[in-house]
Amino acid sequence: MARVTLFLLMLLALSTVDAKQHTFTVGVVPQYDTRELHEIWQPILHYLNEKSGHHFVLKGAPNIPAFEEALLAGEFDFAYTNPYLMLLANQKQGYQPLLRDVGRTLYGILVVTKDSLIKSPAELNGKRVAFPAPNALGASLLMQADLLDRFNSRVTPRFVKTHDSVYLNVLLQQTPAGGGVQKTFKHQPQKITDELRILYKTREVAPHPIAAHPRVDVQLQQQVVRWLLAWGETKEGSEAFNKIPINRLGKATMHDYQPLLDMGLERFYQGVEQP
Amino acid sequence: MKLQSKLLMPVLIGVAILTVIVHFYWGPSLLKDKRQLLLDQHSEVLDILAQGLVPSLLSGDLATLHATLDQQMVTHKKNWLSLHVHNSEQQRLYPLFPSETPEGKYLLSIKQQIIWNGDSLGELSLIVDSRSEIEKELDRIQQLEWVSMLIFFLISIISLLWQKLFILRPIQQLQQAAEHLGKGNYGHPLTVRGNDEVANLTRVFETMRNHLLKTNQELQEAAFQARESEYRQRTVLENIADGILTTDQSGTIISANPAATEIFSLPHQQLIGMELLSLLNSKKDISTSLTDGDSISDVGSRIEVESEKPDGSALILEMAYNSLELDGLQLFTVIVRDITESKRIERMKSEFVSTVSHELRTPLTSIRGSLGLVVAGVAGEIPDKAMNLLQLASNNVERLGVLINDLLDMQKIESGELEFNLSRQSLAQLLGKAINDNEGFAQQHQVALKLQLLVEDSTVMMDETRFAQVMSNLLSNAIKFSDNGSTVKVVLESQKEQLVVSVIDQGVGIPAEFHQKLFDKFTQHDASDTRSVGGTGLGLSISKSLVERLNGELDFVSREGKGTTFTIRFPRG
Fold first, then answer.
1. Which of A172, A174, A194, A196 to mutate to test the interface with B (most CBs of B within 10 A)?
2. Side-chain half-sphere exposure of B151, counting CA atoms within 13 A
3. What is the mean pLDDT of residues A244-257?
4. Which tens digit of pLDDT belongs to each residue from B442-465?
5. What pLDDT score was predicted for residue B118?
6. What pLDDT does B299 receive?
């Protein structure tokens, strides 16, 4: 009898363990290479593992299109993505933004050579402009929207894969202008930034959110929000989030990304899915 | 240049040629090949790089292009000095900022088109500093040069030592031996090693040296003998009483011994260079001989010539000359003997003999006549003792008469006054007459005379009287020296172109010690007063002279106790 009791108690313990620990995938838009992404996100995921008792796993993608495809397929439980993909993911899979950087906004910049004769984006009408990737939010989507909507400049986009390429194309006069973002621009060597100037800044939008798939338990979502917000207040957490970069972690809602819908970015989006 | 240097020269020339080849041809060729290799290597890298840049160029992904090329520059930072990419419109895509084109001796410039689907997307330009590679290659080449030179140097040393040991030293040894040989030293040591050409040369040299030594010794001996002979000859020439002259073909005197200068009473310096004929009065006898090379009929014979001393005194010379050829020149050796005195004496003697003979003959004839008359009893009866004395006197008178006749004959023969009456005669008939004329004398000595004619035609040119005189002498001698009852044979036969008369006796023979002087005057076997046979001792001398004047020869063979054979030879007439 005692043996049976002990056996049943063991089964119960096991079933309790099985029922408690889950593995959650975290997809991160491949702004950097995989190694860098792991370095940035592993501390955060580790923190979540400890706090939740679950297993948060970073899931990468070889490139942005692949990431987009995976995101819109709902492969990630949690995702850190750009705002436009957030919209698409919300529309497609019901992803909900949980957290974002509330200390900054996201916008695109238009760069020309420092001695360029172009004084206004309107002068770029009919010209070629370099953009990193078609769906880069600030550098490409926001910029193309503003060029067309605000300056009536119909430009011929040249998608040169990366922000770095954009700046190089402008510097080497392959295109008279190029679209980028402040972060990547500042990331350039001084010898490049000294030769370029920012001609225009786009409208600003909320930056990349950390979102969750609706299949993730809402309670857990809220827990994750609390844990990360609390940790973000710590030195350790703050440093970890700065690397993403998230200057100041705060809550996010779909409302933050609503303005993107009005921008008509789908005109320029070249994705797997269209909203 | 010494042999060692000459032997070393080919090696040095080889080293120089090799160095020149390595330095000016092989080295640059290797360098060129190295450059080409580097060009090919870097071209290959550029080619791969160009292909790798195609996606970036197509997409405009200059960041990747720059990252790639930056990485390449880092990878090849040792020797890639400059890397440029230009697009198809010659716009620079890399590097970010323009840079000066490096220049330098060892820079390689390589360009590579970036082709995609047959279209040029741009061009890669690379400038590579190949200094280190080239310098490595140059070092290698220099090492090669040094190693080559070292090897050749070692080869030279080994070759030099080898040549010194096996060629130079033996040749030096030969040289020393030759130098010693030149100084007359035949004993310089020679060491022979091996059987190569130098060793064989050394052996041959040694053989030659030994032969030279032997020849030298023989020459020295010959020279000694020659000197001795020359000394003897010179002594003889200087002391000989006869004058000996040497003339050239024209008769010019080129040498004269002291006797010649004395004979001609001319100093030696004056005599040399004179024409011999100018010294003689009778030139015609010898002129043709001494001046005409084709007529030397008198060469070798003795002739008498007259000359005159500088003081005008007469000089009679007996001269004999011979021709000789010396070093291609025809010379004449002339021996002159002053026979002036002997001629004078001979003439005096001859005159004396003639005078005395004539003076003796006259009274002798008278005495003979008177004695004959007395013996004949014209003066009355003569007592026996007186008759014996008269007979003895008569015999001696006869004997004196024969002697005087012989003396007169001899004087005429020697003076050349004797005349011959030559005519074709039958020698057989003359011999028969001689036998008859001497038959009486033979019977007196109880010796038989026998004539044997073995030839049919015995015609000769002969003086009948003188032949009879010769035969009378020979037959009388044969009869006198034959034993009683023996036979004296006279044989006439033919031998080739000669007629031979032999007078053969089996008498006492002539002792060997008299053979040499048998035909001398006054030679008799027994010259004492009590000799057994008579004779004046002039008979054979006169007979020989007569036979020779008649163009014949008179000779004999004799053995004591066995008899004597006198032989007269005459040419057929």
1. A172
2. 8
3. 93
4. 999 999 999 999 998 899 999 999
5. 94
6. 55
pLDDT (0 to 100) of residue B524: 66
Type of residue at B63: A
Please check whether residue B407 is in contact with residue B538, taking contact to mean a CB–CB distance below 8 angstroms.
Answer: yes
HEC assignment per residue over B123-173: EEEEEEECHHHHHHHHHHHHHHHHHHHHHHHHHHHHHHHHHHHHHHHHHHH
In the structure encoding, which two tokens stand for residue B207, read together? 């053989």
Strands B498-505 and B563-571: antiparallel
Alpha-carbon span B103 to A209, nearest angstrom: 55
For residue B549, pLDDT over 70 is answered with yes
Single pTM value for the model? 0.49
Q: Are A86 and A233 in contact (CB under 8 A)?
A: no
CB contacts, 8 Å: A179 with chain B? none
Distance (Å, whole) CA A72 – CA A92: 6
**Nearest 10 degrees: Cα torsion A202, A203, A208, A213:** -130
Instruction: Give the whole-angstrom CA distance, residue A48 versus residue A51.
Output: 5
CA distance to A82, A211, A219, A251, per residue, from A225 (Å): 19, 10, 10, 8
Two structure tokens written together for B204: 């041959």
- Alpha helix positions (H), chain A: 2-20, 34-52, 64-72, 83-92, 143-151, 163-171, 182-186, 190-193, 218-232, 235-242, 258-262
pLDDT-derived band of residue B269, with 50, 70 and 90 as boundaries? Answer: very high
Contact B250, B291 (CB under 8 A): yes
Mean pLDDT of A59-73: 87
In total, the C-beta contacts within 8 angstroms joining chain A to chain B are: 47
B55 and chain A: CB distance < 8 Å anywhere?
Answer: no
Mutation site for A-interface testing, chosen from B61, B70, B86 by largest number of A Cβ within 10 Å: B61
State both tokens at A136: 């880069």
Give me the amino acid identity at B464.
Answer: E
Q: Bridge partners of B500?
A: B493, B569
DSSP structure class, residue A218? H
Q: Taking the mean position of all CA atoms in its chain, how far away is CA B536? A: 55
Give the integer Cα–Cα distance in Å for B257 and B261: 7
Instruction: Please provide the average confidence, as pLDDT, over all residues in chain A.
Output: 89
Q: Does B60 touch chain A (CB under 8 A)?
A: yes
Confidence at residue B294, expressed as pLDDT on a 0 to 100 scale: 43
Dig out the tokens for A51 from the structure: 């706090």
Question: Of B75, B60, B58, nearest to B126 (Cα)?
Answer: B75
A165 touches B: beta carbon within 8 Å: yes
Average pLDDT, integer, range A159-163: 90
Distance of alpha carbon B106 from alpha carbon A63, whole angstroms: 45
Nearest of B280, B259, B254, B287 to residue B269 by alpha carbon = B254
Q: Which helix (H) or strand (E) holds A97?
A: strand A96-101
Instruction: State the Cα–Cα distance between residues A87 and A264, nearest whole angstrom.
Output: 12
Please classify residue B450 by burial: count the beta carbons closer than 10 Å to its beta carbon, then call 0-12 exposed, 13-18 middle and 19+ buried.
exposed
pLDDT band at B534 (very low <50, low <70, confident <90, very high): low
